[in-house]
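To whoever picks this up:

The parser on our side crashed when reading a file containing two proteins. I've narrowed it down to the boundary between the first structure block and the second sequence. Both blocks are reproduced below exactly, byte for byte. First block:
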Amino acid sequence: MLKKIDRGSLFLEKNYAMFRCPKCHETFSMDNHYLSCKNNHQYDLSKKGTIYFLDHQVKTDYDKEMFLPRGRMIRSGMYQPVIEQLANWITPGKLLDVGCGEGSFLAELNQLKANEVSIGFDLAKEGIYLATDQALDCFWCVADLTNLPFSNQCFDTILNIFSPSHYQEFRRVLQKDGSVLKVVPQENYLRELREAFYPEGKPYSNEAVIDRFNMEMSVEKRTRLTYQFEIPVQNQLDLLDMSPLEWHADPLIKQRLMAKLLEKITIDVEILKGH
């Protein structure tokens, strides 16, 4: 089996034209295990076959302790109806996953619908390193949403699952007939967990996010998926650690939840497709 750095190098040899320098926006050339532009800005492949496109180290609140349970929950089938809906709306081609985390959504999606090229990026290096174990047919990198290291009009589809958006950059890197698929949590998303962590109540709405999508994109399709997922026993503890919900929760409440784990959880999301 090829080493990760060699797999990454083979991918770049075929697809380096999809990338551009985030510093000067010039095109790249490929040389062995790195990309470089005419202004001598160079980005090396890591041993894990990834590229770090930022010019400084970034510390995020998303770490391995959250990404691992998140990945296990995704692979447990918690989001299977969501993934199947996304697969139905994707036109196979060149796919970009924005804020891919540890890569489980893209890996699961590619099992349903293979794409010519699949790239995932995130600001959290720990997530990207974990992603290299999820899918061997994807390329992963650390990059800034507001300054994407990709060429103009090179993607057929952008996935935007539970992550921020930058529509100006989305439009730049999308092909003229390309689409953005955005997944937005609705008011009952993870309702049981929210009510357990915050019994006093905590208002939750993403209508402003949906309104922004409607303003920025021409909406082709939209649907709302609401269902209850029966959590496998081996994943019930993972639910408590998979999202930022637990960051500000009372430790005593979390202790009680660990003693009596949730068996079901509500998934309530809006899926939008626009161009």
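<<boundary where parser fails>>
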Amino acid sequence: MSVDASAPVIKNEDSPRGFAFALVAYLLWGFLPIYMKAVAHISPAEVIAHRILWSLPIAGLVLIALGRTQDIRLALRSPRMLAMASLTAALITINWGTYVWAIGAGHSLDAALGYFINPLFSIFLGAVVLKERLRPLQIAAIALAALAVVVLALDSGGVPWISITLTVSWGLYALFRKTLPLGPNQGFFLEVLILSVPALFYVLYLEIGGSGHLYRTGWADTALLLGCGLITAVPLMIYANGAKLLKLSTIGIMQYIAPTMIFLIAVFVFKEELGTARMVAFPLIWAGLFLYTWSMLRGSRAQ
């Protein structure tokens, strides 16, 4: 692949505009549990189907406005690209489904824990899959995260599957998403386009069978389900545009905003009980994240 010498050089520096975009996106993700709690009486599968369906027109309008629809036409002609997009679409569906179920079932703390662990799992994936060399502080951070999982497993008598599923699905999604040669907006549109066919059939099945919540159970449910497209597509696209204008180290620190908000909402709004095991596990994860952040900042200064 040749490099266009006339292409603008992307500077590795922060911009106020990029910081504002990323901050808005993370705040929207942080408040997402409140929205998900409002649709907790609707099955997670139906909520996910509506998240997919109503994200599609929003993502499509964004691509039209950006003049990037040609990228989608090219992607649809590439079997390899369609296969990779199908894989990432499946992973993001698992992540969304687990998250929606967790919030509705009163496991918001487990969801927060999963997203706190995620950066450390991404480091682990980089070492195992991409053969990236780990720094000593990164190894210590991963060890602390693993210890936190062990503490929770011993306390509950089983693997904390909600946290692990969220961590693994999002980590693998981010890893495989890098192999998809499409911009973030185009990639998101292609994913929801692929998922829209089964989602549409599922919604029609529910509505015809009389068990759906669109137009049948009042205007509140209708508005919430239609709004699923906004709360799914808008933060993701705002974040994608902000990330291009920020240093990787800045994004690495800001990614703690959303799980911190989920944690606070779970404890102070949803009144979920921390318990002894979580009071041990969360500080272990936070200590690991501190080591990870410190290592990242030191590496950034060295470069």
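After patching the parser it read the second block fine. Residues 275-302 form the longest helix (28 residues). The radius of gyration is 20 Å.
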